[in-house]
Amino acid sequence: MRKDLLLIWMIIFCLGFTLSFSRPGRAPFAMRISCGAQQDSQTKPTQTHWLKDLGYTGGIAANGTRPSYISPPLRTLRYFPLSEGPQNCYNINGVPKGHYSIRIFFGIVIQHSATSEPLFDISIDGTLIHSLKPGWTNEDDQVFSEALVFLNNGSVSICFHSTGHGDPAILSIEILEIDEKAYYFGPQWGQEVMLRTVKRLSCGYGQSKFGIDYGGDPWGGDRFWRHIQTFGQGSDQPRSVETEIKKASLPPNFYPESLYQSALVSTDSEPELTYTMDVDPNRNYSIWLHFAEIDNSVTAAGQRVFDVMINGHVILRDVDIINMSGDRYTALVLNATIPVDGRTLTITLHPTGDSNAIISAIEIFEIIMVESKTISEEVKALQTLKTALGLPSRFGWNGDPCVPQEHPWTGADCQLNRSIGKWVIDGLDLNNQGLKGFLPNDISRLQNLHTLNLSGNSIHGAIPSSLGTITSLEVLDLSYNLLNGSIPESLGQLISLQRLNLNGNSLSGRVPEALGGRLLHRASFNFTDNSGLCGIPGLPTCGAHLSAGAKVGIGLGACFAFLFLVTCSVCWWKRRQNILRAKQIAARAAPYAKARTHLSDIQLTKHQSHSHSHHHHRHHHHSNARTAAENGPILLS
Ligand SMILES: *[C@@H]1O[C@H](CO)[C@@H](O)[C@H](O)[C@H]1NC(C)=O
Ligand SMILES: *[C@@H]1O[C@H](CO)[C@@H](O)[C@H](O)[C@H]1NC(C)=O
Ligand SMILES: *[C@@H]1O[C@H](CO)[C@@H](O)[C@H](O)[C@H]1NC(C)=O
Ligand SMILES: *[C@@H]1O[C@H](CO)[C@@H](O)[C@H](O)[C@H]1NC(C)=O
Ligand SMILES: *[C@@H]1O[C@H](CO)[C@@H](O)[C@H](O)[C@H]1NC(C)=O
Ligand SMILES: *[C@@H]1O[C@H](CO)[C@@H](O)[C@H](O)[C@H]1NC(C)=O
Ligand SMILES: *[C@@H]1O[C@H](CO)[C@@H](O)[C@H](O)[C@H]1NC(C)=O
Ligand SMILES: *[C@@H]1O[C@H](CO)[C@@H](O)[C@H](O)[C@H]1NC(C)=O
Ligand SMILES: *[C@@H]1O[C@H](CO)[C@@H](O)[C@H](O)[C@H]1NC(C)=O
Question: Which UniProt keywords apply (predicted)?
Fold first, then answer.
């Protein structure tokens, strides 16, 4: 009894063991979002579960029309008018690290359906994966975009970029986990690459279907297979069988068995099979071809042998399905990676003997290099700035500031730092945008800024002293704002500064001496039209504008001076009275007294003239500096 139990346990253990090795032992992660929806829902016929709308940065929920029967049967969508910014995203968290198929269905807002279809760009984590092409609403497999990506950070950002042709409108987003090794095509495959699905065709008899409808393994990612009954040359025939197909649903790609139960076969009169499609030029493509020998007339290896050519180049020589798959009714998957310069991709199966060709399915992916990102420190800085400056929503500023390179944030200039493989913000130009906020300290996290131009807004408050730590700054233009307070001493540390415009604000106080010193180094500074700046040539000398302590000091000083003056006046008056009295006494005869008064007057005048000439000397120094300054491009009106 005990022994039997042990045996059973061992069998169960071994079964579990082999199962866990043949396929991942759990259901794949799947998240499906019904855009614009206010409630979770299930759709027929497969009871697919859709989450209500989440993670979006803006946009408007609306009722939509499905552009094609293959779109999921959802009623709502989310669209992004230009007033919400040129780029909007879905930032989705809670996605475990893994390999995913991300699919986005497009929709059309019911009220907009009369006008033309929107054209826009789509990016995943900053990498541009798809630009919608005119006519997408007429092609079943163009009503969605799909890419295979690795996600490592528990989140993914899917963004939609306006191109000026209508408002992006999104029906659904699906994030479906696939096998870690899915679509391994060679050494280039991996984290640095995304595969965009360009075409997925099931050849022969049948219907267009999703993986779910095929009864395919969920680890296959619920692929959509567009059915094609002829390549169009009139030289091919569909064929199908019910026979079981061996080696079909294997990892890592888990192709549905029925994919191999139909095929296109070339005719004896025209033995070549040729499929041609339009593609974007100058890209690399990964091409996956599916075969199974399901033709009764071919029964052994060597009976059907053909070359596979792409755009005229042989990429697979002497393909013998039975030999390579090991048997009849057995799946064979071959893949090849090729660069395509032109706008067409032609796949030709060219029989080498007197046989003909056969094919079950074709998949074509565009290989896309993953974009570098912007340094996260600088992204955070810009996000803080966005809030602090109260950036209008028409700016968008969603997703990554620098990528996709075709769609950087308005106002941001980006530079790729190749040594760290990250983008940095090189310049920020938001002049004359009606901004009403303040400058946060965090602006100093933009440590690679060379230019900052915020001229002509209504930015109030103080200039943050942290600005002085951005030592790369060459141009700083904060002119024509409502900035107040004094210029921080730290700005003196900006050793690269060439242009500094602080004119047209309400700044007051002493201009940092270090800045004044900088004036001699071919720099151009403008401090005019402020409440009261002082301390450098061309501006008033400081004194009137002092700290509270100094003001108290001056006040006390003034009181003492006043008292002193009063005392002096009293003394003088008394003395004058004395003199008058003496004069009255001396009116009779005392000439020497008058001479003595005269002498003291002379001494006083001499002293005054001395101090005056000293002052004049100092003033002369100033105007010297000013003359020197005026020789260079120093502007101090
Ligand atoms: C969408 O359609 C439903 C009725 O089907 C209607 O009640 C709802 O108000 C519509 N929503 C919008 C945003 O137009
Ligand atoms: C994910 O995090 C790693 C390191 O933590 C970083 O190198 C990578 O750029 C991040 N990826 C994304 C898409 O944010
Ligand atoms: C795809 O082709 C490459 C190179 O020929 C090969 O190394 C790889 O194993 C193939 N992938 C699959 C899944 O067959
Ligand atoms: C195509 O692949 C080659 C070799 O891997 C690479 O040098 C080239 O940059 C790629 N082209 C594109 C457009 O990605
Ligand atoms: C395939 O062909 C090779 C020689 O071309 C032969 O050695 C091998 O046995 C064949 N395999 C099968 C399964 O027929
Ligand atoms: C790139 O970044 C590194 C490290 O932050 C820095 O030392 C280097 O100067 C930067 N290169 C450029 C060209 O900015
Ligand atoms: C800032 O932008 C304004 C408007 O384009 C321009 O006139 C000004 O010269 C810029 N400032 C600097 C320092 O380049
Ligand atoms: C600057 O202006 C703000 C109001 O915008 C005011 O609260 C603050 O006290 C002012 N600071 C100085 C130093 O005048
Ligand atoms: C400095 O700013 C004032 C206005 O604030 C302007 O009139 C003057 O032309 C500017 N000086 C230079 C040299 O740009």
Answer: Membrane, Signal, Transmembrane, Transmembrane helix
